[in-house]
Amino acid sequence: MTADALVYHPTVSHYLRFVATTVGRDKLLRTLQYFSRFYAWYLFRSNSPPRLIAPFEAIKKQFALTRKALRLGKNVEHFKAAATAMDDTKSQDEFLRYCTVGRQLGYAVYLTLDMATYVDTVGIWKLESAKRLQKEAYRAWFVGLLFNAVAGCYTLWGLRQREKTIDKADGEGVVESKKIQREREATNIQLVSDLCDLTIPSSALGYANLDDGIVGLAGTVSSLIGLWGTWKKTA
User: Taking Cα atoms as reference points, which of 19, 123, 15, 128 lies closest to residue 65?
Assistant: First the structure.
């Protein structure tokens, strides 16, 4: 009876739906990858013996490589999203539309270059330009994240402007106010995630002098945000 209760528990079914998605597996691996990056740094700074640090260094490197494989071909999705956003001249604000195009193109170029470095990393085809391509991939990712962060700030400003026009004494005004509050919460969460993610390419490109502790912790936070969002979508 206890085994049946566990096997048929709704949470188990939810978990199976979650791990059945590539995005779900990627978010889980990403969380473990960046936490391992942070914890390996913490152990090193604590003067822990190498045998304790080695497993987390291995998780960081191997899970990063696994995630590269999971991302193969995903660049097409972002190129299509950029084209769709460019053609969509009616459903969203003009500034946000261009931010969406910039974000999607940034991600698309990042994933394209990342795909090229994968064949070098796993030894399929050695590229002399692998390091340069990886650097350009980080730069494209940085641009995509920056566009999304700017769009988030602009959205928050727009929500404040909308809120000023609402009469909260009116029933429809109360409903609209609650809608704005939900949109603001979602935008704030995404903005925090983007700002955390920006530490990764910023550090790799030398734009900011950040150690693995800060980058690993920021990456863990953004990964948990993404993990929770994907978990809710598969409910």
Answer: 123
Question: 235 in helix, strand or coil?
Answer: coil
Question: What residue type is assigned to position 72 of the chain?
Answer: L
Cβ contact 19:36 at 8 Å: no
Q: Which two tokens stand for residue 106?
A: 């940034």
Nearest residue to 113 via CA among 139, 144, 143: 139
Q: Which residue has the higher pLDDT, 175 or 103?
A: 103
Q: For residue range 145-157, what is the model confidence (pLDDT) as tens digits?
A: 999 999 999 999 9
Answer positive or negative: Cα dihedral of 175, 178, 182, 184: positive
Comparing C-alpha atoms, which of 182, 87, 203, 105 is closest to residue 145? 105
Q: What pTM, to 2 d.p., does this model score?
A: 0.91
- Helix %, strand %, coil % for the chain, to 5? 85, 0, 15
Kindly give, in sequence order, each residue whose CB lies less than 8 Å from that of residue 54, ignoring residues fewer than 6 positions away: none
Q: How far, CA to CA in Å, does 235 sit from each of 14, 20, 30, 93?
A: 6, 13, 20, 31
The whole-angstrom separation of Cα 139 and Cα 80 is 21
Rounded-to-integer distance, Cα 141 and Cα 77, Å:
15
Q: How far apart are CA 137 and CA 130, in angstroms?
A: 10
Half-sphere exposure of 57 (CA within 13 A, CB side): 9
Question: Which DSSP symbol is given to 48?
Answer: -
Angle at 148 between CA 147 and CA 150, to 5 degrees: 65
